[in-house]
Amino acid sequence: MPSNTLTTPEPTPPSSTGEIVSRLLHTLGDPDPARGAEDITVVGADPLVPSVHRLADAMSAAIGVFGRQAATLGEMRGHRCQRVQVHAGAAIDQLMATYHTTLSGRSLGALLDDPALLGNNDFYRARDGRWIFIITTYPHLRDAVCSVLRCGLDKAGIAQAAAGWDALTLEEAICARGGVACAVRSREEWLAHPAGRYVAQRPVVEIERVGDGPVRPLEPIGEADEALTGVRVLDLTHVIAGPVGARLLAQFGADVLHLSRPDRPDPIPMIVMTGGGKRNAYCDLRDDHDRAAFHEVLQDTDVFVHAYRGLARHGASTEELIRRRPGLITLEYHAWGADGPWGERGGFDQLACSATGFAVAEWTDRPSLPPTYLLNDYLAAYLGAAAVATVLRRRATEGGSWRIRVTLAGVCHWVQELGLLSRENVIDLPRPGRAPLAALSTTGTDFGPLTEPATPFAYSGRTVPQPGRRSPLGSAALQWR
């Protein structure tokens, strides 16, 4: 694909946000998606930002579906029926949470040990005129890039070195070295690629009963309890999608125990942003003692959320876990799909945009990410959490062991399936900045005052809970309370 060629599908008439909600509920297996959609009201609609994609509609629908599925779980346990209201501006703020969140008045980026790790993430032009997005977010990813390009750690050095490679060759070289990068592809190229065909054949959220398991009824709760009270969640995730999905479960009452390797920690600002209501324990599944402790904790676990490849090598594949714990629900976050052609590749939000044609459709003078910068991480978080609430209801009546899968590439593919807005109608809209479109909330934490976008939906007759206490990594034992 020449770098100066813009080939995008013709804008298609967008369906209503209500139709998006109904289709999502159908995907989740809701018995009456049309009625469920009537319980969700979205105030506002696209376009709110200069994007040809329906960012606000997609995110509003995902938020509304999570709120509705959590409320329905609460109703099963004794809560009163609730309607859900979402403001489209608040949905955009969720996509920009990393920019709107501050800790002690400082932006999250300013608090990183090495801000250049994020600052070097960008599109780079290759020798053949194509573009490639390169990620250096973590030291081991930076080292992989630098070992291939034999360059310094600055953006100019990476750009100069990348210009000496063809984009697809460089993509393969960085991924082979343990890094992550993705050449920019048009939507047509992506759908012709084996990885693209794999993603396109699957729903945005995959829910599969993968084994037998006992019926696990959920105990009745009072109005003062939250919908997921008593549900135990092991959270082996990092970065944004998985951690935010598990944080949503904690916010609505689940006992969430986050696990991390001590030698691969997420930065403290990310832990503060995504860790509300969780306890944090160290666990390295390569270590015999930690692995034994993990399997012991698993015996009283309801939901296992993870975002890592290669867990089968450490006795933590879904098949092995449900053998040890029949009735377990697993929520898997992947970039490209666990068993697809790119199943062994790592990936990030930006790479999904680069691969699937999204960045080409957003083209200005070069391929572009959405004006919100992030997209797939937050959509995946809400969709995965909504699926967990749905499957908890099903397990309470049907039993079974369940697997939920959400991929970043699949989410990006889904957003594009919602249709494109006319470029002429969006190009002059102001780009979102530091000022949020909706409310922010500030809470005290052990790390300092935290300001972040407020919970983006409200119930008709019940206060939506707020995220709980943030705790340092390794501050909890690897055991349930």
Number of strands: 17
Number of helices: 20
Q: In percent, how helical is the residue content?
A: 25-40%
What coarse outline follows from CA principal-axis ratios? globular
Query: How much strand content do the residues show?
Result: 15-25%
User: Main sheet?
Assistant: 7 strands, mixed
Distance between the termini: 55 Å
**Mean residue pLDDT:** 94
Radius of gyration: 21 Å
Runs with pLDDT <50, length 5+? 1-14
Largest sheet, spatial ordering of strands: 8-14-13-12-9-10-11
**What structural category arises from helix and sheet content?**
alpha/beta
Summarize the structure.
Helix content is about 40%, strand content about 15%.
Give an overview in words.
The structure is a single chain. By secondary structure, the protein is α/β, with parallel strands linked by helices. Helix content is 38%, strand content 15%. It has helices at residues 17-27, 33-38, 55-76, 88-95, 97-100, 116-119, 139-149, 155-162, 167-176, 187-192, 194-200, 241-251, 268-274, 288-298, 318-324, 349-355, 358-361, 376-398, 408-417, 423-426, and strands at residues 40-43, 84-87, 102-103, 106-107, 122-125, 131-134, 181-183, 206-211, 232-236, 255-260, 278-282, 303-306, 329-334, 401-407, 440-443, 450-453, 457-459.
Question: Which structural traits does this protein have?
Answer:
single chain, 481 residues, alpha/beta, 38% helix, 15% strand, disordered N terminus
